[in-house]
Amino acid sequence: MVRVTYQYWGCRFGQPLFIFYTPDTHSIKSESILFIPDKIITLLHSQPAVHLPYSLFLFSVTSSPLLKLFFKKRIRILPHLVCIYERAPVSTHNQSPNQKSSIMKSEQAILTTSGAGAGKEGYNRRKFLSALGMGTAGAALLTSCGHNDWYDQFRNNNNNTNAATLDFKDDIGILNYAYALEQLEAAFYTEVVAKSSSVFSASQNAFFNDIKLHEIAHREFFKKALGSNAIGNLEVDFSSVNFTSKDSVLATAKAFEDLGVAAYNGAGYKIMTEAYLVIAGQIVSVEARHAAWVRDQISNGSFSDLNSLSALGADNSKGLDAALPPSKVLPIAATFIKTKIDVKNVF
Amino acid sequence: MNILNILSEIEKVDGDIYDRLSPRRRVMKDFYNAGRKISLAALPLALSSMFTKAYGQSGNRSVNDVLNFALTLEYLEYHFYNHTVVGKDPASSVKDVTFNFPSTAALQAITTIRDHEKAHVDFLKAVLGSAARPELAYTNFDFRAGGNYNADNSYNSGGTFADVYTNYATFLKVATAFEDTGVRAYKGQAGFLKGNQVVLTAALQIHAVEARHASHLRQMAAAAGLTIKPWITYTANGNDTGVAPADAVYAGEQNTTQANVPITNIAADVTQAAAAESFDEPLATANVVTIANLFLKPAFRL
Q: Is B274 touching A (CB cutoff 8 A)?
C-alpha cells in the first residue's frame, strides 16, 4: 500500500515547501529537476510541465538513500495529512523577472494567509495530485486516510503559520531570535519601498531600498544558517504604521533600527559559538549604520543621540549604545507580529 | 594592594555590576566568604581567580589586553577630533587647524563624536584601573601619517595626509577611516570576550556607537563630494571610499560569503553590492595595529 505524507517546511520562496514521502516506486531522476526563477523544483514524476512557483520535493525515500540522508533531520513524517494549496499555483514560466518576483510574493502571501476565505478558490486534492502526476490512484489512497478535516489539521500541525517558539537555551534560540527580528525589519522595509516612495526623495528611496535588501539578506542568511532549526515565517502587523506618512515611516524605522541594535548588543554575551558572535557583530554594526542614517533623516545630527536611547539601555556618560535582553525586546517587537511567539528560557 | 578599593572602583564604573553579573554574583560572595578563610598572602591569587571567573577570558588574549587595545584606539580617535574642535593642541598656542566647518551642524557632529570618544576613553580607563596602558597625549600621535615634526612637537612637513587639518575633505576621509577601523577592530576582538556579560556587552555597545559615527561621517563625506554611502559597499578591494591610502582599513570588506553562506542572490535583488553592504567585516588585531601605528609617533607604536 502506498501512503502519501508530507512535511510542510517553511513557506518562503526558495525553500522546499512540501516534501512528499511516497515509499513506493517513484524515484528521483536528474532530468526531473526543473529550473524556475532562481530556484529548483525537484519533481519526481514524469510531468515536467508543471511549473510551481515554489520549491517542491516529491521523492521516494526508499529509492534515494542520498536524499534520505540529506533530509534525514528535516523530515518529520506527519501521517495521513495532505495539504492542498489554497488555489492553483501560478506558473512563473516565461514571465519577466518583475512578474516572477511579484508572483513569488503573492504566492508567499497566500501561503501565509489564514482564517476566513482560506481555500475559497480551492484547489482540491484531486487537482493537486493530478498536477503532480499521481492522479486518481493517489487521491483515492489519500481519501482512504480518512481525514475530512485535513486542512484544519494541516493548519493545526503547522507551526510555521500558527506559532513560533524561541528557546533561549542555546545559540539556536538566539539565532532564531535574530531571525525573527530580521523578518520583521525585512517585511517593514519591503512595505516602505512598495508604498512610501512618494513621500521621500530619490536618494532617500535609494537608501531605503538598500536597507530593505540588507534586511532581506540578514533574514535569508539566518534562514539558511539555521536550516531545519529555523522558526517559520512570522506574520507581521504594520497596521499602526501609515506608510504614506514620512513621519510615521521614519519613526517606525528608527524604532526598529534602534531596537535591533539593542537586541544584538543585549544578546551577544549569550552566544557561545564564536563564529556566530562575530556574525552578530557584523550585522549589528550595519543596523547601527541604518539607525544613524534614519535618525539623521528625522533630525540631522541625531545619529547617535545616546540620551534619547537610555530607555533601550544606552548610557551617554560612558558612550554606550543601546543594549536590551530579549525579555525586554520581544514585548516591543511583538506589537508588530501577529504570529504567536512562545518563549522559553528567556533572559 | 587594597582589594576593597578595587571592588569599589569597579562599582563606580559599573554601578550595576552586581545585578548585571547576576549569573556570577555568587563569585563575589565566594570571594568575601573565602576572604575570611584564606591568608593574606593568598589573596592576590584568589582575586585573580575571581576576576577570571567574573570577567572571563577566551582565546589567547586577556580581557585587559583587549581593553587596552581598545583604549589606544579611543585615545587616537579622541585626540584626532578634539584637535579639530579645539583648533590646536591644548598645550600649544599655534592654531594649526585652518579649514572651516561648512556649517555649525558639521562642527556639532564632530563635537558629539569627540565627546563619545572621550567617554569611551574615560570608561575604559576606569574599568582597567591600574592595569590601564600609559595615557596617550595628542603629541604622541601623527595624524598626518608620516609627517615630520619639530622639537616642540609642532608640525613641520610631509605625511600621507599632510593636509588633514587644512583640508576639510581630507579630515573627513581620515575620520571615516578611523570610525570604520574602530567598527572592524571591536568586531575582531569580540571573540576574545565571548560569554562575558559585562565586558562583551560594553564592547558591543561602544562598537555600535562607532558604527553610528561611521554612518554619519560617511554622510558628511558624501555631502562634501565623495561618492560614498553610510554603509560600506562592494568594491574589488573592499575600499569604497576612493581614498587609496585607506586600502588597509577596508581590505576584506568585499566579502560576500558569511559562515559559508553566499549572500549574493540569496534572495531576489540581493546584488553583490547589497551582499557586501549587509555585513561589516571584522579586522584581526595585527591588521588594526598596523593601521593604528601609521598614526602613532615611533616611540608610542603598538
A: yes
